[in-house]
Amino acid sequence: MSTTESLFKPFKSGPLELKNRIVMAPMTRTYSPGNIPNDLVVDYYRRRAEGGVGLIITEGTCVGHKAATGYPNVPFMSGEKALEGWKKVVDAVHAGGGKIAPQLWHVGGVRKPGVEGDTPGFSPSGMAKPGKVTGHEMTKADIQDVIEAFAQAARDAKEVGFDAVEIHGAHGYLIDQFFWSGTNERSDEYGGDLAARSRFAIELIQSVRAAVGPEFPIILRWSQWKQQDYSARLVETPEALSDFIQPLSDAGVDIFHCSTRRFWEPEFEGSDLNLAGWVRKITGKPAITVGSVGLNSDFLPEPGTQNFKNAEPASLDNLVYRMDNGEFDLVAVGRALIANPDWVNKIKADQSQDLIAYESDMLKQLI
Ligand code: FNR
What we know:
- The protein is α/β, with parallel strands linked by helices and 367 residues long.
- It has helices at residues 39-50, 80-95, 140-160, 174-179, 194-197, 199-212, 238-252, 275-283, 316-324, 335-339, 343-348; strands at residues 11-13, 16-18, 22-24, 55-62, 99-105, 122-123, 127-129, 132-133, 136-137, 165-168, 218-223, 255-259, 287-290, 330-333.
- It binds ligand FNR.
């Protein structure tokens, strides 16, 4: 039996049925002029679907709020033309045998004035990073506008034919700016302890749930790290994680996408479980792991990192061993899929010797 066989077991969560356990991680590509995904974008995702990916999560796509975007040429999930573009993407992915969810995004304070229009950015306390003022503090009306923009984007995504939606609550963008004490100093009900700082996300998830109905799958991506600060932590213990994650789960999340840089790293002392493993154990909901899958040679583990079955910690053997042990249900792959649109089919056919190593130069075009 090939060690990777379990990656090719089907997965089901409500109406979402996947042919395998491999997910394309969301990756911003800035190739949508006018914020409209064009035919090059259609072909880019088509290649990954034909290459065997079970579930594609698109690059971050901005909800229809005037301050949602922070970078030129990122696609929108609003407006007739952008939605038409996305419909072509969805149809191509379905024709290629895959499923697809958009990642719904609002950058909050990361927005730079002058980029993609003059609307100033805003965030919970006017900051993108602790102490770095980049816009104004959101009013209650701003909060309601953004929540409605996420709900509308999810409604539109469902209408266009997407199979699920992913809410981007990770990496120091708007939702995460509420979560984190470093960027949320509000004194109203949206600030305070972590439970209060989660209120915005909870209301947003509830609103998306109401917009898409009880069955349509909602994925939440979240992370401990923020805006390239890899030491930032929201929760330091399993108990704190439980207090944080359970209300989000109850608000209507079906699948948690736990963003880490190395899937093999234990999240808390005293256990081998990674972040996805803890979230799955606490909530009982399916979890996606991510971080350096297929990038073995570039990322050497820290000394003392757990080493299952004498496999290299970063190896697919270790990944599969962990999945078989119920640590997570799905595996997201980022950079290895930029380098190899057919990464999944090559792994399935045991042709990993033909895989190309990722290089950042590959981002200079849509391959
Ligand atoms: C990313 N990542 C990312 N994450 C996210 O939630 N939304 C996004 O739009 C992006 N954009 C993005 C662009 C590029 C070029 C890269 C390389 C990464 C993070 C990505 O989803 C993933 O978590 C990391 O790349 C780690 O996975 P790999 O690459 O180690 O498999």
